[in-house]
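Problem 3 from the worked examples.
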Amino acid sequence: MGWGSKGIKASGLLMVDGKLYMFVRNYKPPGSDDFTNSRLASSTDRGRHWKWADWHFSDSFGYPEFIQFGKDYEGARDDYVYIVSQGNDSAYGYSPDIVLARVPKNQVADRSRYEFLAGLTPTGKPSWSPSIEKRRPIFTDRNGTQRIAINYNAVLERYILTTSHRLAGSTSTHTAALGVFDAPEPWGPWTTVYYNSHWSVSDGKDCRTYHHKFPTKWMSSDGKRMWLLYSGLDCDLYGFCLKKATLQIAP
């Protein structure tokens, strides 16, 4: 519907075994004036009709996005669906942390089945908790993270994380910044592929962009070419924008 921060908008969409799931942000519970919540909907007829879950996230997961593994969730690492978000409750703020949850893929609408990454064991294995209060970050950037996405590059066997970040001294909701990171697991360890506070510039002017992601469908057969999908506010970028990225693989 639009309406800026006071209108629900999709933040993540996933199909699993023929069923669509969608997280929306800016959700306002009935009787509340708080738009900093996210809620799940599902569809069994490819989006013609939707059913809302009877719960919502309120104190974190303000911009939840599904980790993508390929068409209809083929190529998934296991029988779980994984959800990531910046670690705050608003799609319009920055959090230094990114958090992770998982749920059995056949019970995505059941809030009681959600588990949250609560840290790593001494051997580097993930520790999961049913309590959202015990969540721990999988990634931290002191410059902040916002509207993130993680998609799996199956050929390279790497998870690709994309996020914008805040500029020093700036109070802008969106910036021209982009960070790209990769890891062997959804919880890390992360290495930097690309990090630039002014990656989107036209005629010497910063062009604010957001919700960058590399769709799995547009990754090449050798995994080295990907298309960055994003949108923006300036420089005629308020639309469906694509840029091609070519990776150089380290020895």
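Problem 4, a separate protein:
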Amino acid sequence: MRLGLAPSEKDWIFVSDAHFTGRDSESMEAFLGFLDHEKNQMGHLVILGDLFEFFFGFKDFLSTEKPSAFSDYLPVLNMLQSLYREGIRIKYFEGNHDFFLHSFFSEQFRMKVDVYPDGCEEKLGRMRSYIAHGDLSNPRQWMYKTFRRILKNPWTYRLIHLAGPRLSRRVALKLGEMSHQKYHNAVQPTPPPAFRIFAHEKFLNGFEIVILGHSHFPEEVEEWIDGRRYLYYNVGDWMAHRSFLRFTPPDRFKLSRYVEELANEEIGS
């Protein structure tokens, strides 16, 4: 345990792609147990998108006039609020299942969460790092990028608001099932190469660390360029791997998986 440290000296925990639907109580309970286990040594929690299968910043997300369509999300959101109140900084990078979250956490839960619609640069210790969900990593997926631009724009957001939480969620969950059948049901023997290529390009642009999600495939890649060491991490997913990345200042990274009985164990051990 790293107790008695300032938040800047405590661990950063990166998680991605839980895709909670409310029908996955075991996975959600494990996630809550993981956050509770880590809270004393954690200074930052970084969520690399797709925490829920459909996450839209509705103004009436917590409507008191009728049962909320998202009441089954509350255990996770209440846990995030509890972590925030204990002084843990939270960053949320929107994924391809996240929409219109820029003021959601402050308005609905009175907590400050740094929300990033796309990737951004971050200083981790002394290292220049690039962090993103990762869904824009493959330049060949131009059809997806076009579809993403259609979804993530003010006009579509207005239509979703008009449709309301219940109808929008039903449609989104159906589209999500189709997406998972197409992209994530098949067992992949090796990680998708596009993410490593993307990371390499970032290294050439001066970033020393690249951290992504989206692939659902935990991965650690070390690359040497002109005698300098560069690292790419894909956090993987919470759905199947229970994987997460730990950064311990000033320069230690560890890709791990959470095992309730053992607290956690290193991937590959």
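Solution to problem 4. The chain has one domain: 7-266. The chain is about 30% helix and 25% strand.
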